[in-house]
Amino acid sequence: MDSAIVIASVLTIMTAATPLVFAALGELIVEKSGVLNLGVEGMMIVGAICAFATAVTSGSAFLGIIVGMLAGAGLSLLFAILTQNLMANHVATGLALTIFGIGLSALIGDGFAGQKLDPLPKGIPGLSDIPVIGPLLFGHDILVYFSIVATGAVAWFLTKTRAGMILRAVGDNHDAAHSIGYSVIKIRYMAILFGGAMAGLGGAYISLAYSPLWAEGMTAGRGWIALALVVFATWKPWRAFLGAYLFGGVTIIQLIIQGYGINIPAQFLSMLPYLATIVVLVVISRDKYLVKMNAPACLGKLFHASH
Amino acid sequence: MLLKLESRGEISRSMLYATPLIAVVLTLITGFFLFVFLLDPSKNASAFDALYTFFVDPVIASGGIAELLVKATPIILCAIGLSMGFRANVWNIGAEGQFVIGAITGTIVVLAFYDVESVFILPMMMVAGTLGGMAWAAIPAFLRTRFNTNEILVSLMLTYVAVLVLSWAVHGPMIDPDGFNFPQTRLFHDSALLPIIWEGTRLHLGAALMLLVVLAAWLIISRHLIGFQIRVIGMAPKAASYAGFKEKKLIWLTLLVSGGLAGFAGILEAAGPAEQLVPTFPQGYGFTAIIVAFLGRLHPVGIFMAGLLMALTYLGGENAQIMLGMPKSVTGVFQGMLLFYLLATDVLIRYRVRIGSAVAKSANA
């Protein structure tokens, strides 16, 4: 393979992986606080349409990104109220969020199908013209770099900061955290809102950079894949990042196989990411001890301060 | 002023039945404002007209009841199956995929016996459809019991795979040879179509079979030991294991039953209103069934009523699209909203709301 194909492949892997990185990082923080939000897919798709609609009408991709994040956070606020204040079941509420989000995005997107948008600008002027290394290191849009920074920041936050320690304490034993005076609900609210904004950002990346258009259901299960990535990563940020890039790689396999003219029906190639998710989940969860050691102990359990 | 939740210490039976109704009323009120916002001014219709078009018109139209039952049949069948699992904390959310695979395996029978006129075709299709759905649900069951893999994610991923299998099948091996290369199967022949049980409407035998399933589920859940075991595992898994109920056995059982019913619903839909398979065959009934299961309180009779209501949101969405030019996706928004309100009001079952006092403040501090 010549270097042009390699470079193109790497770039495709990175754009395919970036939305997953954002959504998985957000959910990782949420789950570390002891909350299981299955609504990632719904928040992502609402983020995608809100970002796209804003970018098309205002002409500003930056504004689109902000609105996409706000939309994701807005939906997650509903989840937070229901699960934290009204003590609704996490699984059922997350499913409701996804069903609602998919419907809402279709409703908002009604007038936006078929409209076109320039993708996010790529590359650092000057540097990205260096042969081979230039496009690989400097040829990306700003959000790709941000996803790397964000992964580092989340890892640092969880392991090196006091706030991160408190967040983990709340996720591992909410009763103990409550009795030493931490506000479990407030901390979880912040984690849920962060998760929503990151899912919205992932959605915004899909509709602004990955495929700059709007189509109903365009997130195509990536929110669910992000949820699987968190388990795959055993709740560690850099492993989630790595996992997202592996999935980016699976996406590229489809293109390579088609490029070589191997005669496999397109539908089977499209199944790859979903099948890979299942395989990865099986590999990780067959080791019960591994999951138990790393999963937040209070994940998905309800908390009510009655005393 | 502080609102505080105070534990009732027991489950309020009256609230158990009241909150679904409260949720419906709240959804209608929110829907009213949604319509005010969405209505095209050139249509010259008020939000009341819109609500009427959405929720009343479809039922009072001629043959409306029959259409409602036709729509509700697959939703209720899927929801009955899912509710069994939900009671035992087994979260099969891939009914949509099992529905699609059941339709495909049932259709294989149709195409294999395309020249045969026989009363045995329909029962064979139903068996094949049920087995197909069961096989698809057996994958998450096997992975959960053998490798401890989360059945939520696996069953959902398999839904995407199932839709792709359908797309491949109708583009390739099952394509109509006389269909000018359109991605569709042959139209089912007469022996493979469900008989109409109400002249002049589309109401087919499947609706009657659905009623039988509802009755059977009711008997099982209230009278049979398995029903009791399912309930106990869901409420108190530790107690269940002391009592010797096999958790793995119930995971298998609930997934196979829910998968089988979803597959059965799939072939009924194909042999009823659809009459063939096309790539857009799945209409989201498997996902709607999740809402129906909750709204119906995981009880067969409740599910039957919730299923009719949810079928109405489909018909209403189509009606509003034709008459008022509204996007069809309003249906999904209504469905999601209904589930939100239900989950929100469910807090009243276990807690009562108190206006804050000094006691409340000290507890919150």
Q: What class, by secondary structure content of chain A?
A: mainly alpha
Which class do the helix and strand fractions of chain B yield?
mainly alpha
* Spatial separation of the terminal alpha carbons of chain A: 66 Å
How much of the residues of chain A is beta strand, in percent?
Answer: under 5%
* Percent of residues in helices of chain A: over 70%
Named at the architecture level, the CATH assignment of chain A is Orthogonal Bundle
Which radius of gyration of chain A do the C-alpha atoms yield? 20 Å
Helix and strand sequence of chain A: HHHHHHHHHHHHH
By CATH, the topology of chain A is ABC transporter involved in vitamin B12 uptake, BtuC
- Summed up, the helix count of chain A is 13
How many β strands of chain A by DSSP? 0
Order of helices and strands of chain B: EHHHHHHHHHHHHHHHEH
Outline of chain A: globular
- Which stretches of chain B of 5+ consecutive residues score pLDDT under 50? 358-365
Low-confidence stretches of chain A: none
Tell me the overall shape of chain B.
Answer: globular
Total number of domains of chain A: 1
Round the Cα radius of gyration of chain B to an integer and report it. 22 Å
